[in-house]
Amino acid sequence: MTESRRCPDCGVGLEAMDVQTGDGFKLYLVTNEPKPGILGGLGAKEKLRPTVYVCPECGLVRLYAEE
Ligand SMILES: [Zn+2]
User: Which of 14, 23, 56, 65 sits CB 3.0–4.6 Å from 5 for a disulfide?
Assistant: First the structure.
């Protein structure tokens, strides 16, 4: 799935990276209620690790909520 992420400006493949705070804590998305679509499998208060993609050309950063 990582190969399909592309920068909308440059058209080059985005590189998957890990994101942390300065203290080393991971970033989480937390749902407050069941969601439709890609998040449909998540229940309330479930945590999801976002995947960070960075464009090597322009530096654009995108966050994707992936399983
Ligand atoms: Zn770019």
Answer: 14
C-alpha of residue 14 to centroid of ligand 1, in Å: 8
| Structure confidence by residue, pLDDT tens digits, 40-66 | 777 777 788 888 999 999 999 999 887
Contact between 65 and 48 (Cβ < 8 Å): yes
* Distance (Å) from CA 8 to ligand 1 centroid: 7
- Cα of 50 vs centre of ligand 1, distance in Å, is 19
Cβ atoms of 2 and 15 closer than 8 Å:
no
